[in-house]
Design goal:
mainly beta, Jelly Rolls, Phage tail proteins - horseshoe like beta roll fold, 2 domains, 9-stranded antiparallel beta sheet
Length: about 475
């Protein structure tokens, strides 16, 4: 049987990222838990139909056959696809880790530089020595996590499924293959999975890169199928690893991957009249309400808590400001996903959003590249009224188009430093789980419209300062991570 019945059970057990690879077409590879989505790319420039061909049926559901368009000739290896993860919105490290990858092995790609066969299954924590890597070079099978690892004789046989698991904490860093311990190394205090903010490169599934130039090193691509990849923020036990080792033949890791849904009910106790300005430091937005308001305070004002008691629909939209280019602001609704890290002082805030069907916006976006990227959260009432407020913003610094099946998608991103620390107190709601790593607390919960770095928060009876806020929003789920340093 599968390890988890649904996404909520998986998250409660510490699964923080999961690429189920259940897509049946296109280039997007969704992280259905953490929102850290990837894209299938190929240096050979595959057509939309060829990218669709990489989405295949596997014994436990679906997966990505990265070599579906390869003819077996080494010279044509650039037609093998690679999964490139989006530039991550954070660079925090984990004190414990489990990384699991299910893989069907065909062959090793011939490496003309070494006259040996090589491949790379995984490259996480790019730019950090504490990253997580899984590589084969000749007859050597290497794993590394938290700067610790080992080398064993390559165990893979052509035409077989494999269940690779790397686990680590301060006691040991271990490799399991098909549920059995294959190698062990000394422990480590930190494990990096996100790419360093000092590099423009991204983490990879199905290749590695050490040259700092092209998106990946084409001598390390794989001839095989990736069924799914998962990352936990804890070290799974040997019994847990053995129990979920199915070698890719019987069932998926999670039985039901339907999105987790929440009904939001807002309580109302105060009368409200006229017009007011709602402050969400560091930005201010004026809001006109149809119903009465009678509130006027300094600092931010939580107007959401004063809406009538109705079920509401949460909305997110991207605004690209145009004032620096002499233009009006461009408002884009229906962004397919966005992720961000909000932090103040000398640490950079980071924002990234994916715009689907972006052809209609391309010219307008290009004309506003001196502007800010602004994420707004809104509420649509049953009456049809909609109200938006800013969550965070960053300078517009980069845009990356990608060809989709029918139209282009566009990823926009940017950073911003020296944002002021905010004051105030918030109670975190819909807490999914809370962890403590090296004495620092992290809470995963629903997105709070008014929470800003520097505020104190309450979560499950504990109070601490919100030093950073990570946001993860995609078509399947939305939540934030609030943590202290």
């Amino acid at each position: 049987m599968a390890k988890y019945p649904d996404l909520l059970a998986a998250q409660s057990d510490g699964l923080i990222h999961f690429w189920a690879m259940e897509e049946t077409a296109g280039t997007t590879v969704a992280d259905i838990i953490g929102g850290w989505n990837g894209q299938c790319i190929a240096l050979g420039g595959l057509t939309p139909a060829e990218f669709d061909a990489t989405a295949v049926v596997t014994p436990a559901g679906h997966g990505r056959d990265l070599s579906a368009n390869w003819d077996g000739a080494y010279a044509n290896r650039n037609r093998i696809a690679v999964i490139q993860l989006a530039q991550s919105a954070q660079d925090s490290k984990l004190s414990e880790i489990t990384v699991r990858l299910r893989y069907f092995h065909r062959t090793k790609i011939w490496d003309t530089y070494s006259s040996m066969r090589s491949l790379s299954l995984l490259m996480l924590g790019r730019g950090f020595p504490q990253g997580v890597y899984l590589d084969v070079f000749g007859n050597d099978f290497d794993y590394l996590a938290g700067s610790q690892g080992a080398t064993i004789t390559d165990p893979m046989v052509e035409g077989q499924w494999y269940d690779f698991v790397i686990v680590g904490d301060s006691n040991s860093v271990d490799l399991y293959i098909n549920g059995s311990l294959a190698a062990s190394a000394p422990g480590a205090s930190e494990f990096a999975i996100y790419d360093s903010t000092s590099t423009a490169d991204s983490c990879l599934i199905g290749a590695s890169d050490w040259d700092g130039g092209d998106p990946y090193l084409d001598q390390t691509v794989i001839d095989g199928i990736i069924q799914d990849v998962g990352i936990w923020n804890k070290k799974l036990s040997p019994a847990e690893i053995s129990a979920m080792a199915t070698e890719g033949v019987s069932e998926p890791l999670i039985t039901n991957i339907a999105p987790i849904t929440y009904e939001v009910e807002l309580d109302f106790t105060l009368p409200i009249t006229a017009e007011f300005a709602a402050m969400a430091n560091p930005a201010e937005a004026s809001l006109d309400f149809e119903f009465p308001i009678d509130v006027s305070v300094s600092g931010y004002q939580d107007w959401v808590a004063k809406l009538p008691p109705v079920e509401v629909q949460e909305l997110y939209r991207l605004v690209i400001t145009g004032s620096r280019n002499g233009l009006d602001d461009l408002v884009i609704g229906g962004i397919s996903s966005w992720q961000a890290t909000n932090q103040a002082g000398s640490r950079s805030a980071y924002l990234q959003a994916v715009i689907p069907a972006a052809d209609q916006y391309m010219a307008a976006i290009a004309a506003r590249q001196d502007g800010d990227l602004v994420i707004q959260k809104g509420y649509k009432l049953l009456s049809g009224e909609t109200y938006f407020e800013e969550i965070m913003r960053a300078f517009f610094q980069d845009l990356q188009p990608a060809a989709g099946r029918y139209s282009r998608t566009l990823t926009v991103s940017g950073r911003r430093r020296w944002l002021p620390f905010s004051q105030g107190h918030r109670v975190l709601k819909a807490v999914r789980w809370k962890t403590t790593q090296n004495g620092k607390r992290r809470v995963f919960c629903e997105i709070d419209l008014f929470l800003q770095p520097g505020m104190t928060v309450d979560a499950l009876g504990e109070t601490f300062q919100a030093d950073f806020i990570n946001y993860y929003v995609n078509e399947n789920d939305k939540f934030c991570e609030v943590g202290e340093r």
